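Pinned message: reference record for Chloride voltage-gated channel 6
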Amino acid sequence: SPRHGFPAACCCEESCDMGLVPYLTILGETHEEEDEILPRKDYESLDYDRCINDPYLEVLESVDNKKARRYEAVKWVMVFAIGVCTGLVGLFVDFFVRLFTQLKFRVVQNSVEECTEKGCLALSLLELLGFNLTFVFLASLLVLIQPVAAGSGIPEIKCYLNGVKVPGVVRLRTVVCKAMGVLFSVAGGLFVGKEGPMIHSGAVVGAGLPQFQSISLRKIQFNFPYFRSDRDKRDFVSAGAAAGVAAAFGAPIGGTLFSLEEGSSFWNQGLTWKVLFCSMAATFTLNFFRSGIQFGSWGSFQLPGLLNFGEFKCSESDKKCHLWTAVDLGIFILMGIVGGLLGATFNCLNKRLAKYRMRNVHPKPKLVRVLESLLVSLTTTVVVFVASMVLGECRQMSSTSHSGNGTLSLQGMSEDVNSSIKTFFCPNETYNDMATLFFNPQESAILQLFHQDGTFSPVTLSLFFLLYFLLSCWTYGISVPSGLFVPSLLCGAAFGRLVANLLKSYIGLDHIYSGTFALIGAAAFLGGVVRMTISLTVILIESTNEITYGLPIMITLMVAKWTGDFFNKGIYDIHVNLRGVPLLEWETEVEMDKLRASDIMEPNLTYVYPHTRIQSLVSILRTTVHHAFPVVTENRGNEREFMKGNQLISNNIKFKKSSILTRAGEQRKRSQSMKSYPSSELRNMCDEHITTEEPPEKEDLLQQMLERSHPVKSGPWRNASDL
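Predicted structure (tokens):
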């Protein structure tokens, strides 16, 4: 099967060295063209297809209409519970991010105001470094506990929904480390977002909640007989991922389309309605609690998602202003092209950084990853502080009012926008435009770029875009939970706002709405990075609550995707390939249409008989890198007898309770022996396994299997390279 691993080939003879490179290419170890060093993982497939056999038919015969209706009702209840729990996870992350961020900025802001007069700004920088390094250190420690919690988690969830089992991706420990780690990494001032990890968190909730049990909490078990198959688990993971998008952006329809477009390779009509219901439950759960906590108005839904773009409208004093016109579409197309180029550049740089980390950081002790995260945090903090102090411009505000705590307010603007204008290092009645962007949460900076009129100079926007582009590219991939949506939106919004300023200053288009160009710039850059179309269009429309933006956003995203696809893949697809995951794409390459089954199949199969001995099965598992083996019978009578007795189901070997062999123990032994080895150590590993002393019965069988599956001189490398 193309999804499963491939037989372990001989790497112990010198004659096999020339064939080692193409075989390791299949396993994700190297790449022929660029000589990449990639992880070689023992990935397994999930059983999404029903196995129609005699036991399954017996189960179907015992199911009547009453049981079927009860099963469907329980599934709807579980979908609703997944949405509610995902919304509560988002509430937890948002509450503590807001709490820690306000505490940090309040202390640093007071220190800056005092030290501006006394000349002790270095003390303010040390205070900011103390906060950021502490938070990032905690986030890195959580990733050490559960390494799969690093990053956004979207590539891993995409692989899981595609049918590839990524170890530990949907465990309880993962969601705990993910949720707590992302709030520390965001509060620590890193250029990351919390919206991407929300998708992973929702998927973990969807996978674990219907099971009513967890590997991390073995002693807590409930007798819940439903939803034990991978097929059911996949549907709930799809619903959880969609709920995560809905909670992050307040976009339930966009979440449903995201799960359909980016995630699930398996979909059915009934699942669509359940996923939408789950997304609605997540959105309104988060909205209900956030509105009640922040405004004290329980029951009023005023904050739909973690990220809200606000209301786009022209100033009442400017009668000629329009959100956008047909003439602007041409500019939007050009912005889409530039956004696609910038996104392709971002992906190329991040891919090179990721490969550098795999070669030079990951093989070293885990402490090195923590030190790298602290280095990124240190650099980011110093750049933000120095840029705000040195590169920011003190600009006069025509219509201002003091709001205390070093901020100025624009009359008539929303509270979120006015409260985030910073006066750092500037005299009275002026504000610092660079500090207004850097010394605020990223969501507040996005609102500034969308809705604040005339507050940023072109030089400030250019420097901010350049610094944010480079630092966010460096940050994505370090060992902390991190999202990419918000940094991409903020970077693109600065680009779009820069375009609007240039059009107003040098071309004379005074009546264009700057917020629209900032939104289109954000869409262009984000589309160039992630290469999403349908779902991202709907997410942005729902976030702006402005349906008239549908056409320009859709055109911009299409152009950005087409432009970026000329150069490389989207960021999530790149990281999937870097992990060596055997992901099946929607569309095959043209060369694959010319292949036949014989071109990709292994002719020398490793197979088992219905009554194979336990020792033989263990030997097969220890000498191969896959779990699926054909069960060969001599006649139909033996097959029927075999299907009625003990059987191999879902690649699991059913041992007797009295046996000293356990599946968990064998998995540990196998993971230690067949785990990812550098190519230089692969020869020694094979030598160990071949020279291991086994009982006579098993030694003969093992030798036969190795000779049958991997003849030394007959060229199994050709078959592996073809595959």
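Pinned by admin. Summary line: The first helix runs from residue 20 to 26.
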